[in-house]
Design a protein that fits this description.
The protein is α/β, with parallel strands linked by helices and 327 residues long. The protein has helices at 46-54, 80-87, 109-120, 126-139, 156-167, 186-203, 214-220, 238-243, 248-255, 296-300, 317-325; strands spanning 4-15, 18-30, 35-39, 61-70, 73-74, 92-95, 174-178, 206-211, 223-228, 231-237, 306-309, 312-314. It has a single domain (4-91, 172-325), classed as P-loop containing nucleotide triphosphate hydrolases (Rossmann fold, 3-Layer(aba) Sandwich). The chain is built from eleven helices and twelve strands. The strands form two sheets. Strands 6-7-8-3-9-10-12-11 form an eight-stranded mixed β-sheet, sandwiched between helices. Strands 2-1-4-5 form a four-stranded antiparallel β-sheet, with helices on one face.
Length: 327
């Protein structure tokens, strides 16, 4: 049984200009000890999915439909107190984009982690919280002697590891990481990603990685959900999607990604046009204005998510047409 099951999630924002359908009918699952990568361009709704799961949407944002089932509980139906006391950080934790800059500069790092523990577990003494913080530091590859240091005494990679330690402070079952390698150099980013992969396996964590970087998905995740314009375009096994991308948008992302197997002067492809305005999304398939294979039906009807083969789901009229014709 899935640890987390998101079903037809719809999250909209109210703005002065109108209603923005940031997440519009998204569905996926996360299993224990497995990771899913939610990938797509900026503004496609990836982070809003995470904020919806955590129930920490900014002002104006609201879940208008769907279910978020976590251990058989529908998080959409729980009130704020239940989410705060029973779910957030205790069961589901998040490492935000740019989290390495989120530490308070005037407090020691160890005090900040131990405070996070005592805040959610009042029965634990400060000493016990600090002892757990030391174990968390060891878990993420930091020397416990550095607990007494201030954030400015840590490198960017060390701060990112400290934030991961803080996210794990209350032993959550699910960890959400939003662009975990952003603003890190290549070597440090690789170390952080390796750490996340090791933690997933060692702690049997369910993990959701939000990224625009396909290499991260390939490195850590077992499944992938490709998002565009608030919707999932393709969803399935990572290896299957990488070897046989079916949706034109997924193919475009793959073509825009450099490969060490490509010819020396091979040009990377690009996707023409710009992401859609979610205040006024195009009729039919949201991707059709940028699609090289657009058909008349694409301009009129929203494609349904169709299982092309077991576990591999695509929302594309072209793929559906080929399947029906036996191509």
């Amino acid at each position: 049984m899935a640890l987390l099951e998101v079903k037809d999630l719809k999250t909209y924002y109210r703005t002065l200009s109108g209603q923005v359908k940031a997440v519009d009918g998204v569905s996926f699952e996360v299993e224990r000890g497995k990771a899913i990568g939610v990938v797509g361009e900026s503004g496609c709704g990836k982070t809003t999915v995470a904020l919806s799961i955590m129930r920490i949407l900014p002002q104006g944002g609201r879940i208008v439909g769907g279910q978020i089932l976590f251990k058989d509980k529908n998080l959409v139906k729980l009130d704020d107190n239940e989410i705060r006391e029973d779910i957030r950080w205790k069961e589901i934790a998040i490492v935000f984009q740019g989290a390495m800059n989120a530490l308070n500069p005037v407090f020691r790092v160890g005090d900040q982690i131990s405070e996070a523990i005592t805040l959610h577990e009042p029965d634990i003494s400060k000493r016990e919280a600090m002892e757990r913080s030391a174990k968390l530091f060891e878990l993420v590859g930091l020397d416990p002697s550095r607990l007494g240091n201030y954030p400015h005494e840590f490198s960017g990679g060390m701060r990112q590891r400290a934030m991961i330690a803080m996210a794990l402070a209350c032993n959550p079952s699910l960890l959400i990481a939003d662009e975990p390698a952003t603003a890190l150099d290549v070597i440090v980013a690789a170390q952080v990603l390796k750490l996340l992969k090791e933690l997933k396996e060692r702690l049997n964590l369910g993990m959701m990685l939000i990224t625009h970087d396909l290499s991260i998905v390939a490195e850590i995740c077992e499944r992938a959900a490709v998002m565009y314009g608030g919707k999932i375009m393709e969803y399935g096994d990572v290896v299957d999607i990488f070897k046989h991308p079916l949706h034109p948008y997924t193919q475009g992302l793959m073509g825009a990604f450099p490969s060490i197997m490509a010819k020396k002067r091979a040009k990377m492809a690009s996707i023409p046009g710009s992401p859609p305005d979610l205040l006024k999304p195009p009729a039919g398939c949201v991707f059709h204005p940028r699609c090289s294979y657009v058909m008349d039906i694409c301009r009129k009807e929203i494609p349904a998510l169709t299982e092309v083969k077991k576990g591999h789901i695509v929302a594309c009229h072209l793929v559906t047409t080929k399947k029906e014709s036996g191509e």
